[in-house]
Amino acid sequence: MNNYHSLVLDQKESTKHGEHSFPVQKYITTLSADCPVVTTHWHEEAELTMLIEGDCTYQIDLKEYHIQAGDLVFIPPLILHSIYNKLNNEILSETFVFHLNFLGANTTDICSTQYLTPIMNLEFSIPFIISPEHKAYCSLKDIYYQISNLYAEKSYGYELAIKGLLLQAIFLLLQTREKTNSPNVSNKSDNLRSVLDYIELNYAKNLTISELADICNFSDYHFMRFFKKHMNMTCIEYINNLRLEKSIELFKQGNTSIVDVSLSVGFNNLSYFHRAFKKKYHMTPLSYIKLTHP
């Protein structure tokens, strides 16, 4: 099994990370001028990332953080997050995505009830960014490298060691836990998650701004400003981008009718689909089909 994956994520992620009995997966993410963004998304798992090369901007729970090479990033479960390569430099990061149930969050002992479950329920927050100035940085960096080496070598019992190291990492992060976000920020996150969920379920339909604004009880104007501010793109750009990603999935599954795929993902204008596809992927749909189905 290939243990190194590209971390390209959709809004509410449904990807299975790792195996059922060992829900830990390593990902390699690269961003460049041609592919500068990992769009806003969230998932049930937590993730621990080290930025290997470059500088980038993380948006976590609607707040922006500048990240430099060497920094560690911890994302709790269910938190909205995205990555932006605003400087157009080469970005390389390594991420471990893991479910807190693997660490015992679904049990009834004190570790679960007092520490892990509150993290999953967002009852308190722990630092998202661990830079060299953070007092736990050196210890967490050492733990991260141990996890990475164990995952690569897979010596007998490595799963036990990784589980123990992840628990140590959580322990260190908890020592500098912070207050939870204000209700105002939480409400904004909930609104954005609700909109992204709705788009994910209805992207193939003729979605309107008014329809999406109603989900948040916003005016059309307020909604468009809200979406652009927190997604770094307009709502229409986001929907079209999602539709194009869905079209790629259909082509990969063997659907070779460009007209059918275009209609299936919500593009009713075939010429517009061609132009949008070429702009995003630097090739026409037909060229992509020939490339992937020789």
Written overview of the protein:
With 294 residues, the protein is an alpha+beta fold. The chain has helices at 110-120, 137-153, 158-174, 183-202, 209-216, 220-231, 235-252, 258-264, 270-281, 285-292; strands at 5-6, 24-31, 37-41, 46-53, 55-60, 63-68, 72-75, 81-84, 91-98, 129-130. The chain folds into 3 domains: 5-174, Jelly Rolls (Sandwich), CATH 2.60.120; 182-232; 240-294, Arc Repressor Mutant, subunit A (Orthogonal Bundle). Helix content is 44%, strand content 18%. The strands form 2 sheets. A 6-stranded mixed β-sheet has the order 1-2-9-4-7-10, with helices on one face. The two termini are 25 Å apart.
CATH superfamily of the largest domain: Regulatory protein AraC
How many angstroms separate the termini?
A: 25 Å
Q: How would a crystallographer describe the biggest sheet?
A: 6 strands, mixed
**Mass-distribution shape:** globular
Low-confidence parts lasting 5 or more residues at pLDDT below 50? 1-14
Strand content: 15-25%
- Helix content class: 40-55%
Instruction: State the CATH class of the largest domain.
Output: Mainly Beta
Look at the structure and give the mean pLDDT.
Answer: 87
Order of helices and strands: EEEEEEEEEHEHHHHHHHHH
* Structure summary, number of beta strands: 10
Q: What is the SS-derived class? A: alpha+beta
CATH level-3 fold name of the largest domain: Jelly Rolls
Number of helices: 10
Name the CATH architecture of the largest domain.
Sandwich
Radius of gyration, rounded?
A: 20 Å
What is the total number of structural domains?
Answer: 3
> Biggest sheet, strands in spatial order?
1-2-9-4-7-10
Domain HTH araC/xylS-type: 193-291
Protein name: AraC family transcriptional regulator
Keywords: DNA-binding, Transcription, Transcription regulation
GO molecular function, one term: sequence-specific DNA binding
